[in-house]
Specification:
489 residues, alpha+beta, Cytochrome p450, three-stranded mixed β-sheet, 17 helices, disordered N terminus, binds protoporphyrin IX containing FE
């Protein structure tokens, strides 16, 4: 996944250029669906001033979309790519991704896997092997009746976190990011173990803490290698490569050791995810590689998304009050449209993976231009999610925009022109397999926190979004906690 967020004030003020609509060729596609303008005719920055920086790539690309329109081509380092911010063209891209969708993998990881012969899970798999594994895992992760397993595991972990804060009289959440990485991992382990989690979790606590710490470091070190090829870093034995492999080794070994301890416990009465994987005939090695990747994929994505959600709620006390009041009335919080709206809004403004990538399998037409096979397409979620054509008042955190209109017969939302302009989990066959778990986890934990606490933002400096492989706050967030009273509702 590539990363993402916050439009700089100067970039926001740029007028949208005349080229923001798609070229006539797109409209002609009805009569000649496969023919478009030649790719060389696609807008490019040419001599326009501006240099991309790894940490602010989303701002640079956003500026380019404003100058060049919803589809343009640019070179980022050694790579040339087509950038797309039009929601309909983004959907078309997924429609053209083929049977075995291909995405870009982080180069340091690929190099590590090749160098040490490591086999990885779904995110790294390809072709028929990927499809076979995905078909086995989809029912276990995305079926609606999985909801109960997910929700009791998420609730258990959320309540433990809040109880810890209450018991410790916490007034400011110390090292929020690290605590949320641990929370993310605890949840995945609770889902894997099902009802047996409570009995076994205490003995794994130190290992999980160590793993959370290392996964966090893996993302930091991967970000540190964004300006240098991993192969060069390895061949030169640079300190950044040495630190990277130390943390990846520690993460993979600890995750493997945990999974090996969990597998033999998951055959009896336990109703966890691991039991489902064993029962559907997966080999031990397949289980290990898929589960390790779940643990790693869940760590940063959910931890950072919840962090952004807490930030937005802390910055918007009125909305926070409405959400807290809704939570006291709603019996099934997972179905609360307002709370779901909070999560959708946070992921719209701060998509942890601000660029989705696809390598197009065949020649195809995107945005009215004909792309050759193997062309790299990057979908600019940061730009599409903050475009006023898709979301009125796009910079405003406004969860109610996702409520259905009372007169709606076609499922329209109150203040959303095009819901596909925000697709934080991607779309189609290769979209996030952890989506259901991530949503359940975030909603359940928000409910647990807001029931007991009012949260406030204690940072006095401006908080920006920067890319450290994924979208992170530019400085550590300081979130204050005050016990919630009836009068504060
Ligand atoms: C808010 C939280 C999350 C966000 C925003 C997110 C986002 C994404 C996105 C955008 C992709 C697709 C990448 C692509 O199309 O190339 C993806 C893939 C994936 N996600 Fe998530 N994710 C989240 C949570 C999780 C969790 C909790 C898990 C673990 C259970 C998980 C496991 C995976 C895996 C294994 C893939 C690869 C799927 C494949 O290639 O078939 N994600 N995620």
């Amino acid at each position: 996944m590539w990363s993402a967020v916050r439009v700089g004030a100067a970039a926001r003020k740029l007028p949208r250029a005349a080229g923001t609509s798609l070229p006539p060729a797109r409209r002609r596609q009805h009569s000649a669906p496969r023919r478009g303008l030649p790719i060389d005719a696609m807008p490019t920055p040419g001599d326009l001033p501006g240099t991309p920086s790894a940490a602010r790539l989303h701002e640079y690309i956003d500026m380019r979309h404003r100058q060049l329109g919803p589809v343009f081509r640019d070179r980022i380092g050694p790579v040339s790519a087509v950038f797309v911010a039009d929601p309909d063209e983004m959907r078309r891209t997924f429609g053209l991704e083929g049977k075995y969708p291909m995405h870009v993998l982080p180069e340091p990881w690929v190099h590590y896997n090749q160098l040490f012969g490591v086999k990885r899970g779904l995110f790294f798999m390809d072709g028929a092997d990927w499809l076979k594994m995905r078909r086995l895992m989809n029912p276990l992760m995305l079926r609606t009746d999985q909801g109960d397993i997910f929700s009791s595991a998420c609730q258990h972990v959320a309540e433990s976190l809040v109880s810890k804060w209450k018991a410790g009289g916490t007034r400011v959440i110390g090292d929020l990011e690290a605590q949320l990485y641990k929370w993310s991992l605890d949840t995945v382990i609770a889902v894997l173990m099902g009802p047996l989690y409570e009995t076994h979790a205490p003995k794994w606590n130190d290992e999980v803490e160590y793993l959370a710490h290392n996964i966090h470091k893996v993302f930091l070190e991967t970000g540190n290698m964004s300006l240098i090829s991993a192969k060069d870093a390895q061949e030169g034995q640079l300190p950044v490569w040495k630190r990277f492999i130390t943390t990846v080794d520690a993460s993979l070994n600890t995750a493997r050791s945990l999974v090996l301890q969990m597998i033999p416990l998951s055959t009896g009465e336990s109703g966890g995810l691991l039991k489902g994987m064993i029962e559907c005939g997966m080999s031990e090695e397949d289980i290990i590689k898929v589960v390790i990747d779940f643990i790693i994929a869940a760590g940063d994505t959910t931890a950072l998304s919840l962090q952004w959600t807490l930030y937005l709620l802390a910055e918007n006390p009125l909305t926070q009050g409405h959400v807290a009041a809704e939570l006291t009335q709603e019996t099934d919080i997972l179905q609360s449209a307002l709370v779901r709206g909070v999560v959708r809004e946070a992921l719209r403004l701060y998509p942890v993976a601000p660029f989705l990538t696809r390598i197009m399998p065949e020649s195809c037409v995107i945005g009215g231009y004909e792309l050759p096979p193997k062309e790299l397409v990057l979908l600019s979620l940061f730009t599409s999610g903050r475009n006023a054509n898709n979301f009125p008042e796009p910079e405003r955190f406004w969860p109610e925009r996702w409520l259905r209109t009372s007169h709606s017969t076609n499922g329209s939302y109150k203040a959303v022109h095009n819901p596909h302009a925000s697709m934080p989990f991607a779309m189609g066959a290769r979209s996030c397999i952890g989506r259901k778990l991530a949503e359940t986890q975030m909603i359940t934990t928000l409910a647990a926190i807001l029931r007991d606490f009012e949260i406030e933002l204690l940072n006095t400096e401006n908080i920006d979004m920067v890319l450290r492989m994924v979208a992170v706050p530019s400085i550590p967030l300081k979130i204050g906690l005050r016990p919630r009273t009836q009068t504060s509702l």
